[in-house]
Write a structure and sequence with these properties.
The protein is α+β, with helices and mostly antiparallel strands and 147 residues long. The protein has one domain. 58% of the residues lie in helices and 13% in strands. It contains four helices and four strands; from the N terminus they run H-E-E-H-H-E-E-H. A four-stranded antiparallel sheet has the order 1-2-3-4. The termini are close together.
Length: 147
């Protein structure tokens, strides 16, 4: 249990630090434009595609409760194979919540517009997607998670 918690915390800290350092570049003024991808600063007051922006201040507290629930649930499973993907999810999720406390919205910066306009997103969003996919694989293929 302690080893699982240590792995989860170390991964979460690494993702959080990496994401916050990338975001710092954009808050300080970094911009880059291409024909397909622009690296720009956008503050997202909602979640994916700005959904739930109407929740305003409550959104960050709801997300903190959800993150705590994810950690609590996965620790109750007592399977070390969940430590890395949950650490990724928690580090990335907490980084986005931290933005809400510091900047009033999530710092997003990757704008894909090649062929179609896509939502503006960040490193943490990509890490959350990877973590969710990893967790789905662990749950639907239990033989990949021995303990």
């Amino acid at each position: 249990m302690r080893k699982s918690l240590f792995i989860l915390a170390a991964v979460a800290a690494g993702i959080f630090i990496a994401d916050q350092n990338i975001k710092w570049l954009f808050v300080k003024g970094f911009r880059y434009y291409t024909d397909c991808i622009d690296l720009i600063l956008v503050y997202n007051r909602g979640v994916a595609f700005s959904m739930f922006a109407f929740l305003e201040e409550a959104l960050k507290w709801i997300q903190l409760v959800l993150l705590a629930g994810v950690v609590g649930y996965t620790l109750s499973l007592k399977k070390r194979c969940y430590s890395i993907p949950v650490g990724i999810m928690v580090g990335a999720g907490f980084s986005n919540v931290y933005d809400r406390f510091i900047h009033g919205g999530v710092v997003d910066y990757v704008y894909w517009h090649c062929g179609f306009n896509f939502a503006v997103f960040n490193f943490a969003d990509v890490m959350i997607d990877i973590a969710v996919l990893w967790l789905l694989i662990l749950n639907f293929r239990p033989q990949t998670c021995k303990g």
